[in-house]
Design a protein that fits this description.
- The structure is a single chain.
- This protein is of the alpha+beta class.
- It contains three helices and nine strands, in the order βααββββββββα.
- The strands form three sheets. It has a four-stranded antiparallel beta sheet, with helices on one face.
- β3 and β4 form a beta hairpin.
- α1 runs antiparallel to α2.
- The longest helix is centred in the middle third of the chain and has 31 residues.
């Protein structure tokens, strides 16, 4: 039996607006501006000049596309099966799915990362909507964050659904 739990990202409209504008600007530069500037009398040198000039803009375009896609359309899919839990990030570039064996997971918790302690000190996260909670798998190696930056209610709901399906499959 396979159960899929979908968690939609909370959209930050300011980030969506700014990255949309940046994508339009970079697209204009890549498609219109750089070809006009790089045109020379010899065709071969024009192509090389275009490629050299366009590489940084394509890199920034890809970076902004990554942020825009994940912020605007991102979803986390938790696929709970008999022996594994698979995490897939839809609309997130360059990220593969993660597979966790149920026997390796000791506990599933909701943790508040408003104040996060890490190796080099302490980091404070501020959020107007209290979206500082994460769903975390506890195993022998420590904590593995599965879903980040959601509200307490949503994190508790996801944690309870995972535990319910998990215990239902193990009975």
């Amino acid at each position: 039996m396979c159960t899929i739990i979908k968690v939609k990202n909370r959209i930050n409209w300011l980030v969506t607006f700014i990255t949309s504008l940046a994508l339009i600007v970079f697209l204009f530069i890549i498609i219109i501006l750089i070809p006009l500037v790089s045109v020379k009398e010899t065709y071969f040198l024009s192509v090389i000049n275009y490629l050299i000039n366009v590489i940084p803009f394509v890199a920034f375009f890809t970076l902004f596309l990554y942020f825009w896609l994940w912020n605007t359309f991102g979803k986390t899919l938790l696929i709970v099966e008999q022996e594994t839990i698979t995490i897939k990030y839809k609309n997130k570039l360059f990220v593969g799915s993660k597979i966790f064996l149920k026997q390796e997971i000791k506990d599933i918790q909701t943790i508040d990362f408003k104040i996060e302690k890490y190796q080099f000190g302490t980091r404070y996260h501020f959020s107007w909507v209290d979206a500082t909670y994460s769903v975390v798998f506890i195993n022998n190696n420590g904590e593995k964050r599965i879903i980040d930056w959601i509200t307490k209610e949503k994190a508790d709901e996801v944690t309870e659904r995972i535990k319910k399906v998990w215990y239902q499959n193990n009975v």
